[in-house]
Amino acid sequence: MAVGKVTFSKAEREKLAEVLWLLNWISVVTGVTLFALGLFLKVEIQKWAEVMSEQGTLYVPHMLITTGLAACCINYLGGKICLDCADTNKFLRWKLVMMPYIICTFFFTSCVLAGALMCYSIRSQLEESLFLGLRNAMRYYKDTDTPGRCYLKRTVDMLQIQFQCCGNTGYRDWFQIQWISTRYLDMTSSAVVDRLRSNVEGQYLMDGVPFSCCSTFSPRPCIQQQLSNRTAHIHYDQQSQQQNLWRRGCRQALLDHYTGIMESIGLTVLLIWLFELLVLTGVRYLQTAMENVLRLGDPDLESDGWILENSLAEMARSNFNIIKNLGKCYQVDDDPNINIPTAAAEREVSSRQVQVPVTG
Amino acid sequence: MVVMKMKFPFEKRVKLAQGLWLLSWCATVAGATTFTLGCVLKTELRRRAEVMDNTDVHIVPNTLMIVGLASLGINYFASKICQDALDAGRFPRWKNFLKPYFAVSCFFTVLMLLAVIMSYAMKGSLESSLKVGLRNGIRFYKDTDTPGRCFQKQNIDRLQMEFQCCGNNDFRDWFEVQWISNRYLDFSTKEVKDRVKSNVDGRYLVDGVPFSCCNPSSPRPCIQYKLTNNSAHYNYEYQTEELNIYLRGCREALVNYYMSLMNTIGAGVLSIFILQGSVLVSLRFLQTAMEAVAGKENTEIETEGYLLEKGVKDTIMEVRSTVWDVVYSQMSPSF
Fold it and tell me: What UniProt keywords apply to this chain's record, in alphabetical order (chain B) (predicted)?
């Protein structure tokens, strides 16, 4: 009732060992690829880390980096083991290590799968992080004299120029915050004072955007001020308005950018996971085949290899029994001296039995 | 009067042939690298072709590409020759091939050196080409509705943002040109009418620059218009303001960029030239050493190798007379 039973002749076992040695070395290369992908993702996220609110998104590249390093070590060891497995004498050296190695590799392979799935699931968290981060960045745009925030203006400008976007959701986000510092506002001018008084918080709000929102595709010089007032600019029709500034919001632009990167990385990691699974299956077959050959005694005979010795249900049952019996370890059921009455105890029992009929 | 005579015992010849074989394969890779460097330079020059008036400077990458391809062929033959060099029976079949081969190889190797020298010499030509190209670009900035010029605005904007520069020599070039099209000017307002009347050609000139001149590193929002008017903006002095717009001119920025690119490429090509030269010199020594072996019974004798049989002047005169004879014999059947 073994799961996936395959019979291996001696030549087939040796061929399997050779093939697995090669596959393990290829897996070392894919492990390096995984490490490189993790590093690349980390660098990309760090590039725009200032417009993200918390660094919760960094666990994905860290996961990829650690699994990449683990892949290199595990598959390097696997390569060594498989090379020795072709010969039954050398296999004896690794016999005790094989089972823990296979269990380790199984857990590591599931980590790789988890890493791949994380790449796809991080989108909503990233969106939230970008929304908050961009909102703060735009709020502190004017604070070029505050330590810790003095480069935020430059970052936001470069972001809007590079990703061809404006604002958080759209260019109107700039209308709702004061992005011109009071250092550059003439407080003696009545126009400025009127504007400051016109809203509750005393902020200098205007229907204008920074220069970095200007689209290079527009046929006319950029209109940055009085954007809501159609009559302020000549021939400012619908098409002019569409082409004047970048239409996309920076949150959407960055989300698309990172989702694209992570989807390709996720796909590559999935392929690597499938490959690792293949290698793991091969190693398991090799291990069981070699153990069976040793049990048979003659290294030239055919032996069986399998994935699981019994079916899944039986294995679950036997494991459950083991766990159940672990709890009974202090109950010595098979102690031969229990329940066998001693001579003194027998006499006491018989005297008690004699007394009972007298009273009854 | 033999130039650079050296003795070559048998083992030294063998070592020379083996070393040369390896060297010629390295030189083949180097030749491919030269070709790639030429392609890279050409791509970079073509990317900014809209702001260059002429393509004179393209002679540098073109030469590099030709030399790269030629050196692939030269080094391939070099490796084949030195493979046959150790076999005294096979070597004589190269006899007639070697003289023209050396002539062609020397020509292309010298051409490689010329390419490097040209990349420094073409700086002036590049600069004048950029001067005219940028001047036209700035002049036609507003003509986004004229076919053939509609992308000038986009190109100039992208150029200024990417190279962090403004204008041709500096930002004042924008003051002398009407860069806002008449389609977007309200001729009913007094201000526009005054400005248009204020100069001879009836152009709308402003002391302002396009948004692409704005420097993102400036601590204050960009001031684009009324740049020379200190009172138009609060707390602003245009003489001392350095961070508001880019102060560098685009011509200077582009020339620096291309010269640094050509310097890097020139350094690489120079080292490849030295490698190629050493391959040819070693091959010449091998050839002359093996020629002395030809016809002898014992192929393991010590022979002498040299660079030139006669002195430099005599060789040049001999080459010249050979070339004359060839040209004369080509021309005479036509009579």
Answer: Membrane, Transmembrane, Transmembrane helix
| Contact in structure between A170 and A252 (CB atoms under 8 Å) | no
User: Nearest residue on chain A to B160, judged by CA atoms?
Assistant: A216
Closest by Cβ to A219, choosing from B145, B216, B219: B145
What 3-state DSSP class applies to A12? helix
A222 contacts in chain B (CB < 8 Å): 210-211
ipTM of the complex in this document: 0.83
- pLDDT 10s digits, A136-166: 999 999 999 999 899 999 999 999 999 999 9
Q: Which residue, among A71, A4, A81, has the nearest Cα to A276 in the 3D structure? A: A71
Report helix angle A123-139 to A88-121, nearest 10: 50
**pLDDT tens sequence across B167-198:** 999 999 999 999 999 999 999 999 999 999 99
- Contact list in A for residue B221 (CB cut-off 8 A) is 179-180, 184, 210-211
Burial of B202 (0-12, 13-18, 19+ CB in 10 A): exposed
Interface-testing mutation among B160, B184, B212, with chain A (most A C-beta atoms within 10 A): B184
Q: Does B120 touch chain A (CB under 8 A)?
A: no
pTM of the model: 0.83
| Inter-residue contact B202 to B165 (CB < 8 Å) | no
